[in-house]
Amino acid sequence: MDVKVDSSRRVRHRALQTTAILLAALVNAPVAHARASSGEASAVRSSAADDSALLPPTFDIESGPIDFSNKGVVSASPRTGTSVLLWATGGSVRANNSGTILGKTTLYASNDSADATGPLTLSLVNSGTIAGGTRLTGFDFKGVGATVSLDNSGTLTTSNSSTALTLTRYNYSQTPALAADWKIHNSGTIKADFDLTTDPNVFATALLLIDPAAESRISVTNDAGGLISAKGSSAITIGILGGNLTLSNAGTISAVSAAGGDHVAIFASGGDNRITNTGAIIGDVVLGAGGDVVANWGSIDGNVSLGAGDDVFVEGENSKVTGTVVGGAGLDTYIHARKTSGTVTLGTDRPGDFELEGVRALGSGTVATIEAAAPIGRPILLDGDGSIVNKADITGTIWSVASPDLDAGTLLGSFQNKGKLSGGFHGALHRLDNDGTITATTGPAVSIVQSEGLVLNNHGQTSHASDADVAVLAVTTGGEVVTTNSGSIDGSLLLDSFNSPDGARNPLLVSLSNTGSIVTTTSTLPTVTIKANDALGVATALRLDNSGTIRHAGSGPAIYALIGEGDTTAPGASRALSVSNSGVIAADATGTRDGGDGIVGEALRLNATLTGTVTVSNSSTGKILAIGSNPVAISAIAASFNLDNAGLIEVKSDTPQGSDKPPLFAIFSLATNSSIVNKGKISGDIALVSKVASVTNSGTIDGSVWLGDGDATFTAAGGVVSGGVFGGAGRSVVRVIASSASPTSAFHDIYGVDSIAVSGGAATVSGLAQAKRIDLTGGSLVGLRGSLIETGRVTVGKAATFGSAGLVRGDVVVAGTLSPGSSPGTMGVIGNVTLQNGSRSLFELTRTAQDRLLIDGGLRIEKGATLSIASGSLIRPGVGYTLIATTKGITGSYDTLDLPAGAALALSQTASQIGALGLFGRSAQFSPLVNGSIDYANQRIVRGASPALAAHWSNLYDDDGLSRPAAFAQLTPQAYAAATQIGVDDALTLSHAARGPAFAPYGTDSGLFTFGQAIGSWHTLRANPSTGSAPATGSAYGTLGGIGFADAGWVVGAFAGNLTNQQQLQGLGTHSRVGSLVTGAHGRYASGSGLGFSSSLIFDAGRARTHRWLPDGRRVWSHFDLDSMVSDLSAFYAADVGHDWTLTPRLGVTYVHTVRSRAKEQGGSVFALDVRRERHTAGFLDGGIALERSDASPEAWRPFVALGARYLLQGESVRALAGYDRGPRTLAGVGADRAELVGTASAGVGYRPSDAIEIFAAGSAQTGRDDHQESITAGVRARF
């Protein structure tokens, strides 16, 4: 649209010219004067005859109201041209015309009669035709105002006047005129059209309204299809002199003049005028001084002059103005309006004398998008009920303010900034979204004050002008403020909602959800302030959800939340203040001194008054931090304060903390009821000035807890309190419960509480614990080293454990577990201790320390009490322990001693002490041999070992104080028991050799013979787990020689020789060597039938040497005699099987009697043995069958093979007894056992190269369970 600009001088000239024309039209109009008839209260005239009838003119003057209705045709007076003249001096005239009135129609209302009191009333409803001009005039003599209405759906014209419709009011009272209400509605035709060829000098006016009161309200509505027109040499279609015009045109308003004449469609001389055009206006629009608004959605074929005052011109989409638009003097605004979504480009079509530019969006679905080719440096106004999006760079201020032509309560639906606003945003709206940048040079960057709810979302950047200014200010009077920030706000944020006693009863809500950053640097203002003030008793809520960063530098708090501002007089519904934090809330007042309230550095200041609820939730990632000279992380005033912390709440001082410095409070609550659940870390003190207080801790409190003077409970579910838990004047309880999150509740001090109650979990006290009573029904309570527990009585239930490594002042009654010390330590009790039936006293012993119980009082041990040594304790055998000492004696004794596996103690009790002596522990996993060795050592300990022996007990237990079974096995005389088996082995070897071919007969010949043979054997005896004997391996070798006499069927002879034996016991480091001198005699007889027998008597004189390695690392040795006497008898039957072969079954019995002399070991070890002399007898029964060449056979080669079995009649095992360090020789050692039954096999061959010489060789083996032996022999026999 092309816009021409007129000078302000021309505008003023045009307005004055138009006013003069209107006054001239009024002066030229005739005025009838009449006097009201007396005595009549009202007059009703109706022309209801046939429509074709011509009725005479009507003239009526009444003192009462006049109601006039016409449905016919009323003629005009030939003299005056008047058809209807009605005058009511009583102040009311109502006329309704649906017919035709040919002349002028005049309605007068005055209140000059005595009875007239109310406002003047003039009403005309026309659905017919009034052709001679129409006038409605009021005369106010009493200053009571007027109401004038005209509703035209017919035709109002003029033939004998220049004005079709004249509306006037005169004030004849002595006071200024009161405001009048004028309502003109046209859906028909109002026109003053003259033929310019016949009436060239007529100033035509369609509607002229004059009112003396500037405050009068004038409403003109021209419906679609309605026509208001004027045509003359000069024409004013609608002229308004006085009052405030509100005009809505959907039809046509037309002014047509002759060439050079004025053609003004709408004129208003002053006031605040509102014109909305959706139809057609032909002619100029001229408005005088005042705040005028012209909203054009249709067409204006002419100029628009808004005159002086702060005016608004609204350019609707697709609208048209053919002339110029002049704002005139004042602050004028040019608004681009949209009812459908589209783009508004600023800075292109704004008239030059409009100081401001604006954008309007109408309709909830309408989105107007602002763009600009260059930065806009002037303020921009926004209004409407739709949505506006900014993509431009605007350095001027954005104002969201409803224009005067809109309803006062109309709020912009939403504004979204995607561009750059350098002058800030101010006003009122339903929703603000910032995705760009908003800054300000002065004052807040965003300032919103309104009476309705607000949604405020910042996803971009918002910055304040200075530290003294807030960055974002949002205030509602009775609505909700819902705010989110995922961007950055540089400066403080203030959100406020309040109501008044005469306001609407709407709930109040202020909420902030922050995932971005809100930061102030040196401001004295809080970084975030959220407030709600309720004066009506409605539901009120403040909510803050932070997962981003809220940081404050300065003396004020980082977050200040307030409900009520101290007003607690209103009847209250719920008042709730909640803070949920998973990000960072920090206040840093480093270097700032006291600002007046004593607090310097405060993260959260929360005030819900004494009727509201404050809830704070700090998640595991949340941090609430405060630094300053007297910082507080969270302060709360409320009826109820609830804190759930899983993250970090911390205060730090910016100055060194000396002993005279006040405590640093992480949490300070003035709530009536306070509840704190801590699963994270609170660094700083907790102070609860409450009637009822509750603290549950399973995390860390690096400070003290002040429970206040109300009823308070501190519940420990694990966690640590590095300071103290302090009770007050009320009833205070410290509870300890079980927790899977943290197994131990650690206290430093507990002071001034009524009771400490432990029902589960574990608790420790490192400082002072003072309570009137301490009750344990489960779990444990332990005083650490240096602690002091003061109470009247400690009661320990059956499922509970109590102990201390410090001092307990008070009586102790135990039905559960009493555990003195603390890994380990000494527990002192000033009082009496009672150990009830079923109780357990648990002591721990270590390498360097032990648990002790020292009682300055008496000890009573009831029947059924148990003394236990803790699992993992290191009981050092041979060491004595004082477990309990009393000053007033001990009554009773322990019934049961409970020791860890592998440990052993010997208790001792006197009148005032209970002690224990460490012993070596037996085990079912050990062999009887090892357990026997342990028993021997324990006997030596109990009876008192020599210092030398006691110094070497450590060689027999490991680092855990447990017995070393291998060491105890080494101590036993097992090697000597095993050595006895050497004599048995020799006996079997020699008896087997005597039964061999060396003493075979020579058939029928007789004579002397001699022989010599070599012998070798290897024997293995396996270990026996049931006895603990070690496996024994041995070998032997030697020679025999002898002489004999053989005759037919019988042989006798004698022999001698030597044997050497070696034996080792696996795993024990022993070695025995025996050298033996052997002598013997043998006799054999074989009858001719094949039946025979043999017998031997053998003597084995041995000298043995045994070496052993001992647990102390020494090697000892000894010498001893090992002598055996062997008697062997066998019977056989040689059955001839032909070809000089015989099958010979044999049955024999062998007895060995061995004597091992006493042995005394050398080598300098305290564990060297003194071994007792031992006698051992073994008996064997053997049987077998042999296939062999007959003794009478002349064959040179004489092979044989035999199979059999041998059964042990007695002497399966061998025992040795010994002692060490001058101890009794009762330490037993058992040698490896022989198998009860073994199988035997042998094979050999003899060769007789001549009758005088026979060479023979044989091998044999035996095998049984864990008993295996192999032997070989070879020799030669010669006869003389």
Report on the structure:
This protein has about 1300 residues and is mainly β. Among the domains are: about 60-335; about 795-920, no CATH class; about 975-1280, Lipocalin, CATH 2.40.128. The protein is built from 5 helices and 111 strands. It has a 72-stranded mixed beta sheet that branches. The protein has a 12-stranded antiparallel beta barrel with strand order 95-96-97-98-99-100-102-105-106-109-110-111. α2 (about 930-945) crosses α4 (about 965-970). The N and C termini lie far apart (about 165 Å).
Name some characteristics of this structure.
elongated, Lipocalin, 72-stranded mixed β-sheet, 1280 residues, 12-stranded antiparallel beta barrel, mainly beta
Give the assembly state of these chains: single chain
Return the average pLDDT rounded to an integer. Answer: 88
CATH fold group of the domain at 973-1279: Lipocalin
Beta fraction: over 45%
CATH class of the domain at 973-1279: Mainly Beta
Please describe the biggest sheet, giving its number of strands, its sense, and whether it closes into a barrel: 72 strands, mixed
Record field, number of beta strands: 111
- The unreliable regions are 1-51
Note the gap between the termini: 163 Å
Taking Cα atoms only, what radius of gyration do you get, to the nearest Å? 64 Å
Percent of residues in helices comes to under 10%
How large is the count of helical segments?
Answer: 5
Structural class designation: mainly beta
CATH architecture assignment name of the domain at 973-1279: Beta Barrel
* CATH H-level superfamily title of the domain at 973-1279: Autotransporter beta-domain
What global shape is seen? elongated
